[in-house]
Specification:
Order of helices and strands of chain A: EEEEEEEEEEEE
Distance between the termini of chain B: 32 Å
Radius of gyration of chain A: 14 Å
Radius of gyration of chain B: 13 Å
Mean pLDDT of chain A: 90
Helix content of chain B: under 10%
Largest interface: A-B, 24 and 25 residues
Shape of chain A: globular
Shape of chain B: globular
Number of helices of chain B: 1
Number of strands of chain A: 12
Oligomer: heterodimer
Largest sheet of chain B: 7 strands, mixed
Order of helices and strands of chain B: EEEEEEEEEHEE
Mean pLDDT of chain B: 91
Strand content of chain B: over 45%
């Protein structure tokens, strides 16, 4: 069965520093991969998604993610973090070959940005 | 106005009470979902519906029921609430591509506390 692991529960970075949030998935074929962001008191918003093709995908708000099949990873990166990036980030996987019709979400990584 | 609206946003109730969480959307999407979010567990799918005549159980449907009153409305009911149903509940919608290939659009969440 497919699953998603986000090993970091909480990360703190300084404003202007670079950011990398880790995501590992388990699935026997190429999955569909997503990163969502949840700002305080808000619902989730899609940052970016990967289906196929170029393994480096660009998203909104200056985020990017790289699919690495050999490592079963889809890490999220941002070169320079802004205070407004403080939020919770969820990696999610879709399993197109299973017939499932839902996404499986990781447990989330909470990002704190310090001045 | 939000594209996906959930009511109530906050609710405190007692064990054994019947609770209904309502979701309405103006995105014109056929597909609607109910997720539950618990700290450290991420989001888990409760029920999903691909049209008004199609209701499907998700990962954690026990203790919940749903009703798709119209394309734009999808309600979640707890017939007899229990404390371990205390959580943040999200409604989401998607277009025909579904959760696998499309984007989920989330409401702002309904926080339910069962005493």
């Amino acid at each position: 069965a497919q699953s998603v692991t986000q090993p970091d529960i909480h990360i703190t970075v300084s404003e202007g520093a670079s950011l990398e949030l880790r995501c590992n998935y388990s699935y026997g074929a190429t999955p569909y991969l997503f990163w969502y962001v949840q700002s305080p008191g808000q619902g989730l918003q899609l940052l970016l998604k990967y289906f196929s093709g170029d393994t480096l995908v660009q998203g909104i708000k200056g985020f990017e993610a790289e699919f690495k099949r050999s490592q079963s990873s889809f890490n999220l990166r941002k070169p320079s973090v802004h205070w407004s990036d403080a939020a919770e980030y969820f990696c999610a996987v879709g399993a197109p070959l299973t017939g499932a019709n839902n996404l499986f979400f990781g447990t989330g990584t909470r990002l704190t940005v310090i001045p | 106005d939000a594209d996906v609206t959930q009511t109530p946003r906050n609710r405190i109730t007692k064990t054994g009470k019947r609770i209904m969480l309502e979701c309405s959307q103006t995105k014109g999407h056929d597909r609607m979902y109910w997720y539950r979010q618990d700290p450290g567990l991420g989001l888990r799918l409760i029920y999903y519906s691909f049209d008004v005549k199609d209701i499907n159980k998700g990962e954690i449907s026990d203790g919940y029921s749903v009703s798709r009153q119209a394309q734009a409305k999808f309600s979640l009911s707890l017939e007899s609430a229990i404390p371990n149903q205390t959580a943040l509940y999200f409604c989401a919608t998607s277009d025909y591509g579904g959760a696998l290939t499309g984007e989920l659009f989330f409401g702002e969440g309904s926080r339910l506390t069962v005493l």
